Amino acid sequence: xxxxxxxxxxxxxxxxxxxxxxxxxxxxxxxxxxxxxxxxxxxxxxxxxxxxxxxxxxxxxxxxxxxxxxxxxxxxxxxxxxxxxxxxxxxxxxxxxxxxxxxxxxxxxxxxxxxxxxxxxxxxxxxxxxxxxxxxxxxxxxxxxxxxxxxxxxxxxxxxxxxxxxxxxxxxxxxxxxxxxxxxxxxxxxxxxxxxxxxxxxxxxxxxxxxxxxxxxxxxxxxxxxxxxxxxxxxxxxxxxxxxxxxxxxxxxxxxxxxxxxxxxxxxxxxxxxxxxxxxxxxxxxxxxxxxxxxxxxxxxxxxxxxxxxxxxxxxxxxxxxxxxxxxxxxxxxxxxxxxxxxxxxxxxxxxxxxxxxxxxxxxxxxxxxxxxxxxxxxxxxxxxx
Length: 386
Prior knowledge:
By secondary structure, the chain is α+β, with helices and mostly antiparallel strands. The strands form four sheets. The protein has an eight-stranded mixed sheet with strand order 11-12-13-14-15-17-16-18, with helices on one face. It has a six-stranded mixed sheet with strand order 10-9-8-19-20-21. The chain is globular, with a radius of gyration of 20 Å. The chain is about 20% helix and about 35% strand. The chain is built from eight helices and 21 strands. It has helices spanning about 1-10, 55-60, 140-150, 170-185, 200-205, 240-250, 280-285, 285-290; strands at about 25-30, 35-45, 50-55, 65-70, 80-85, 95-100, 110-115, 120-125, 155-160, 190, 210, 220-225, 225-230, 260-265, 295-300, 305-310, 315-320, 335-340, 345-350, 355-365, 370-385.
């Protein structure tokens, strides 16, 4: 499906028609639901805009985007980050969209999908620890481009935190430009890393599934077909924050979905040379809950390497290969099945009636200061449905 969409849509690519660009970065999408999506972008100066969209089958037949939602700016100067919610969509449907500004600029065509019903396979990508690039090549962009070409059409992309090195405007701009190849095709759903510093700018950039904590975005849950995904904040220091989000997670993981997945930044277990053997606090507080609730997969970053660890029936993945400088593995912790150093990568996940299939796709190998493009499978496994 991904290749078919890509091949068709490149034939109708819309480039910018204005030399003075008001669109700083974007658009990107977030907060996907059964009948709604939020389209976001950053612009300066603020201009009137509209998001044009249509179901993919209709667009394929006519070449037209039949629907539009208009946005009027809230200010006349400065930078504006816009979140425009598109509602009354058809469930279980691929949509095509583009952003059109009043100065004549248009974004490239993109896609998003509304939530499927039970029984429909769910596919998504995972990336973590993108941060910053001090030297070329742009490894974040390399990973994003590889994700955009994955044979599975991702319903959404999860990010395990440390999106930016520092939550300042130039770093956010670099992040969105670097991630544009995949953000064009799928909504982004991140969790907080330590580098975001719980900054207001993080909350200003993202529309997330329903959640709690600061602005209702510090932790969240996505119920998507047969999959329940809970995003948590492992940076929390106050006991009440840890307890509140854990009690909330217990409720979100107690639903009817057969597949249960959790994502947060700091790994519970890790063989990283500096961070290993993981977080003793999370091992004591969160791991028993994941075991009790039958969580299939726990995704984390922070350690910039890949590792698969199995403890008490729960599979933990450390997926910090999104583009930041890489770390060495040390002594392998109990339950460590696979460990890979010196690779940038992403994770592709497919959940269906049989279980959960996972592919860890290497994009580049790092040898000293050399970054060598290298597409290969670093790990691949299947978790049968319980």
